Amino acid sequence: MPKSKRDKKVSLTQTKKKGLEFKQKIIEDVQTCCDKYKHIFLFSVHNMRNTHLKEVRQSWSGSRFYFGKNKVMALALGRTQEDEYKDNLHKLSNQLRGQSGLLFTNKSKKEVLSYFDNYRVADFARSGNVCQQTVMLDEGPIPEFSHSMEPQLRQLGLPTCLQKGVVTLLKNHTVCEQGNILTPEQARILKLFGYKMAEFFVTIEGMWSSNGKWEAIADRPEPIVPPKVTIKEMKQMKMGWKMMRKRKQAMRKGRDISRLSAGLFVNKLFGYKMAEFFVTIEGMWSSNGKWEAIADRPEPIVPPKVTIKAKPRDEADEDGMEDDEEEEASDEEGT
């Protein structure tokens, strides 16, 4: 059937396209920063995460980051020696490739390299990343997962089954091998087990100074990564999963989840009991018709500051398990 001429798409959005004016503003801002700051550092971002990059921006509040379209930034700096904004800026603009950006700052080269060499944040690997390690799973029970998770784990390729209601791995399993491309299923398995393989970090590629000098910076030292790791059962992770499940159950029931906050989890993890159960007597009525209001009773002295000392792991885990069982029993009684 021929297309009707009256069939036209009408956009109802109120947003305006970022056209030529937006690009011209970026060019003006970049050139203004070239006049304002002493140094321009060319950096590359690896395993990009917006949250981590936002933390870096906040740490360098006195400086200016530009992380956008490389062609627009290169146009602002000048692509050739004839149209460059300042001396030797064309050498900097020719290095803008991939996930690169510009850091305008008055801090010295030593301060910048020291900060970015030590700034590495572990994060979950995504599908398409190259595996940095060979990750293994040991045969045996996986109590950190509920029984309802077993079909999902099996769909992801794990040889699992339910034994007495506990998810169990039937044999040793290799999640991924070093050098291979990570698949969506493998990335999901690593995230379920809480293993962060990827690292967000920033490398400094070069530096331009206001005197017109361009300096390429050699490769920085990288941390040593073990080629093979085995994910073992962690009791702390088990407690963490229980706390997450309780939070979800409380949210479904519309209950207050403030008592299941991160602070409570830390106190529980270290076996520290901050709250006290007590009953106060407010008044008394006698059979002779006399009513007597009872004044506030003296309260125990609570130290304003305490230090939690190390506790044997077995005792702490037993205490945590007992508390979990008590809370689960109280939840069942409430329902």
TrEMBL record:
Cellular compartment(s): Cytoplasm; Nucleus, Nucleolus
UniProtKB keywords: Cytoplasm, Nucleus, Phosphoprotein, Ribosome biogenesis
Region (Disordered): 296-335
Xref: InterPro entries: Mrt4, Ribosomal_uL10, Ribosomal_uL10-like_insert, Ribosomal_uL10-like_insert_sf, Ribosomal_uL10-like_sf, Ribosome_Assembly_uL10
MF terms in GO: RNA binding
Domain (Large ribosomal subunit protein uL10-like insertion): residue spans on this chain: 125-194
Biological process terms in GO annotation: nuclear-transcribed mRNA catabolic process; ribosomal large subunit assembly; rRNA processing
A cellular component annotation (GO) from this entry: preribosome, large subunit precursor
Keyword Cytoplasm: yes
Keyword Cytoplasm: yes
Biased composition, class Acidic residues, residue ranges: 315-335
Family matches, as PANTHER family: MRNA TURNOVER PROTEIN 4 HOMOLOG (PTHR45841:SF1), MRNA TURNOVER PROTEIN 4 MRTO4 (PTHR45841)
The protein's assembly and partners: Associates with the pre-60S ribosomal particle. Interacts with MINAS-60 (product of an alternative open reading frame of RBM10).
The family this protein is said to belong to: Belongs to the universal ribosomal protein uL10 family.
Stated role: Component of the ribosome assembly machinery. Nuclear paralog of the ribosomal protein P0, it binds pre-60S subunits at an early stage of assembly in the nucleolus, and is replaced by P0 in cytoplasmic pre-60S subunits and mature 80S ribosomes.
Name the record gives this protein: Ribosome assembly factor mrt4
